[in-house]
Write a structure and sequence with these properties.
The chain is of the alpha/beta class. It has a 7-stranded mixed beta sheet. The protein has a 6-stranded mixed beta sheet with strand order 7-8-9-10-11-12. Strand 10, helix 7 and strand 11 form a beta-alpha-beta unit.
Length: 319
């Protein structure tokens, strides 16, 4: 069986800003919030399994255009949420209802869709998406709040030759529970391993995940070892220069430091925006092509391995 990773979207919550005249907002290229699909293909080239990582705005539009899911070929075997923020969950209603109706039209009784997330994210999704949670989803909740740099229990799948291992990361605007006071870690990165490759999905983290650059505890060292040397590293890169103090997302300066430790073969920049750097600064209004050019230049200066780029919707990685 062949396994593919297909990009559904790479953008953060502010995909385009109403009233903005920057080049990124003027670009007519389709956009969608950060998401990928793990699609398993049989010998006849047909999709026989589909795991969806995150489902924000525009993701369903990307799935509709996916050549493996045209019309009645659409399938969804599970959803994996990195966390509960709306730009990773706002597409749940469109996805669940449309998939349910499509199966009904074909005379198929729709099963509930397995969904994996951490405990705090589950609490938020039940508040924000109560209808979808109750009517369409079969939740598998990782009932913990372990700190960043902790390897979590693997996600259960029906794929015997694929291993998906979550790792706790901090993303401070998400690390709070709707019914409790204090920090409750809600976010996860994922290491996707097949017999041929290793891919790391490391998006929506804050700039305080210093364990990625300099692990201290045995837990952090084990997590970095698991992530290191990946064939593909998808990583949160919301803006160019690091912010003073704590920031909800890392900058490209952070990414360069993490890459020195993780040593990926291919790095793909995700959760992009043209606005956090501020008008007149590097990163402001940059298109994907401008980001890739500037990032590649700095990558070479740092002497980092492999390549760096922004992927596009529909890009396919053979795992």
């Amino acid at each position: 069986m062949q396994h593919l990773l297909i990009v559904n979207g790479i953008d953060g919550p502010m995909r385009k800003q109403f009233g903005c005249d920057c080049a990124r907002c003027a670009d007519s290229t389709p956009q969608a919030n950060t998401s990928v699909s793990l699609v398993s293909i049989n010998a006849d080239g047909e999709a026989v399994h589909h795991l969806l990582f995150d489902v924000g705005v525009g993701v369903v539009d990307s799935l509709v255009r996916n050549p493996y899911f045209i019309g009645s070929n659409a399938r969804l075997d599970g959803i994996i949420l990195s966390h509960w923020h709306p730009d990773h969950t706002l597409g749940l209603n469109q996805l669940c209802v449309s998939y349910h109706l499509g199966l009904r039209r074909r005379g198929i009784t729709p099963p509930k869709i397995p969904l994996w997330c951490r405990r705090t994210s589950a609490a938020w999704v039940q508040v924000q998406n109560e209808y979808e949670w109750r009517s369409f989803l079969c939740p598998h909740v990782s009932d913990e709040s372990y700190p960043p740099g902790t390897i979590l229990q693997p996600v259960e799948t029906a794929l015997p030759d694929v291993r998906i291992t979550p790792i706790s990361v901090s993303h401070f605007s998400a690390d709070r529970c709707p019914y409790a006071v204090g920090v409750s870690y809600a976010c996860a990165a994922f290491v996707v391993e097949t017999k041929n490759s290793k891919t790391v999905l490391l998006w929506d983290i804050d700039n305080q995940n210093e364990w990625l650059a300099a692990p201290q505890t045995e837990s952090e060292k084990a997590a970095v070892t698991l992530m290191a040397g990946a064939d593909n590293l998808f990583i949160d890169t919301c803006f160019w220069r690091n912010k003073t103090g704590r920031s909800t997302h890392p900058s490209y300066e952070n990414v360069l430091r993490y890459a020195h430790t993780l040593q990926p073969q291919q790095t793909l920049l995700m959760h992009m925006s043209g606005h956090p750097d501020g008008r007149g600064n590097r990163g402001w209004g940059w298109t994907n092509a401008e980001w890739t050019a500037a990032a590649s230049e700095e990558w070479a200066v740092q002497g980092l391995p492999g390549t760096v780029c922004l992927p596009g919707i529909g890009d396919i990685l053979d795992l």
